[in-house]
Specification:
Layout (H helix, E strand, L loop, with lengths): L8 H8 L4 E5 L6 H6 L4 E4 L3 H9 L11 E4 L7 H11 L6 E5 L14 E5 L15 E2 H6 L7 E2 L4 H10 L3 H4 L3 H24 L6 H13 L7 H7 L10 H13 L30 H8 L3 H6 L13 H20 L3 E6 L6 E7 L5 E6 L7 H14 L3 E8 L3 E4 L5 E4 L3 E2 L1
Parallel strand pairs: 1-4, 1-5, 2-3, 3-4, 6-14, 10-11, 11-13
Antiparallel strand pairs: 7-12, 8-9, 9-10, 12-13
Helix pairs in contact: 6-12, 8-11, 8-12, 9-12, 12-14
């Protein structure tokens, strides 16, 4: 029996769209099906082979039924988008089709003639988990008016650790304790044993090597570790590593499955900020997947006694997981506000900012993430430097942390607990 539906930020995005067809893409178990079933009157479930067989025999079945029509796992029939595109070319009325996909052929490989749009759906952002009522809107911060920042929360470090481990996949977070851990391990097992072979079109010859590579990728969470170093760290007890071609195939397939969610490097038009590092920051779709792959527990994270990761790192693994939770949440809010997310770092590492949220007009909101309650001058030095370099192109600067209070520092930098940040 399904539990209570948790309203999603993406619901408001979908409400605003009046185009004939919308595609919602994201990893399995992220909640696409429940979100789109609620706003549809007819559902075609292509994850059922019998439905695929029927559509192969008569693809116009996809158009049948009272609208809006929802086509789940649309990529299981390669002609789905062509069928929908032809239908909306004939009738461009609003909200006729919703499509959801979690693997395979991507919607952006097709032309929708401006009538089909794609919306990304990620695991639950922090505000969607309903632990606290946000008092600070990311959209308002992006607006550039430097709004007042205030609020107080009882959500503390242990609660953030619990949320990292609880997962942002709605069905998985409904479990408790060992059941939830087993569900997350089962998610990884499915990726390794079924989803990747389906994507590659062949069996994975050494599934244990793929699992080691995933663990090394998890250990690189919130870092710019190169793919070569991740590959080298994924060796077995015999010292063997998968070759470059094999690991590239893994990475491509995992990207198509939305299991990887790297944060690209920011490449501004301000020439004086170059040269910049162009390597993305490494993230999995949900920080809970990184935690279970490493074998981290509540006790090990809170005590600082991290399970030995396969990659050396600066700082604690908990700090990286908290940053992953912040980045996940901020990307959900930024997407709803029409901004794109990236990270900033120069090639020498002198200046870096964890998160750059860029508006369509090129102005940005800069975000630093700190696993601390207090924020000092050293924590904002990169933000103040960026403000001097960018002038009025930097609309605001924020430190997201685990403080109980939201406020503005005298230098204008906003300090916001993750629990109080919302869309």
């Amino acid at each position: 029996m399904q539990g209570t539906y948790l309203p999603r930020v993406v619901d408001d995005e979908l409400d605003r769209l009046a185009l004939p067809a919308v595609i919602v893409e994201g990893p399995k178990a992220v909640g696409k099906t429940r979100t789109l079933e609620r706003r549809s009157k007819t559902v075609h479930r292509l994850f059922r082979q019998v439905e695929v067989d029927l559509v192969c025999a008569d693809e116009d079945r996809l158009l049948q039924g009272e609208k809006p029509v929802f086509i789940d796992e649309f990529q299981r029939y390669r002609g789905t988008i062509d069928v929908v595109r032809d239908a909306v070319d004939r009738d461009a009325g609003p909200r006729q089709f919703y499509l959801a996909g979690s693997a395979g052929e991507r919607a952006d490989t097709h032309s929708g003639a401006g009538r089909i749009v794609t919306v990304r759906m990620r695991p639950l952002a922090f505000s969607e988990r309903k632990l606290e009522e946000p008092t600070v809107s990311l959209a308002e911060l992006l607006g550039g008016a430097r709004p007042p920042v205030r609020g107080e929360t009882a959500v503390g470090l242990s609660d953030y650790v619990d949320e990292v481990l609880r997962s942002g996949f709605p069905a998985i977070r409904a479990y408790e304790g060992l059941d939830r851990t087993q569900a997350l391990r089962g998610y990884v097992d499915r990726v390794v044993q079924r989803d990747i072979p389906d994507e590659l079109g062949r069996a994975v010859r050494r599934p244990e090597a793929l699992r080691r590579w995933l663990r090394a990728y998890a250990a690189a969470t919130a870092t710019t570790t190169s793919l070569e170093k991740i590959r080298d760290a994924a060796h077995g007890g015999d010292g063997r590593t998968a070759n470059h071609q094999t690991t590239q195939a893994y990475r491509d397939a995992l990207e198509r499955l939305w299991v990887l969610d790297d944060l690209p490097a920011w490449l501004p038009t301000l020439n004086h900020l170059a040269p910049l590092l162009q390597t993305p920051k490494r993230y999995l779709a949900d920080p809970a997947l990184a935690a279970v792959l490493i074998g981290a527990s509540r006790q090990s994270l809170l005590s600082g006694e991290d399970v030995e990761p396969p990659l050396p790192r600066d700082g604690s693994f908990l700090g990286s997981l908290f940053e992953a939770l912040v980045v996940l949440s901020a990307r959900v809010y930024a997407q709803a506000a029409g901004a794109v997310a990236a990270h900033f770092r120069d090639q020498h590492g002198r200046h870096e900012v964890d998160l750059i949220l860029e508006r369509p007009d090129g102005k940005v909101l800069a975000v630093e993430v700190k696993l601390s309650q207090s924020v000092g001058a050293g924590d904002v030095k990169h933000l103040t430097w960026l403000g001097r370099e960018m002038g009025d192109k930097l609309v605001d600067a924020v430190v997201v942390c685990v403080s109980p209070y939201a406020y503005r520092r005298k230098d204008g930098v906003a300090v916001v607990p993750l629990a109080l940040l919302g869309p």
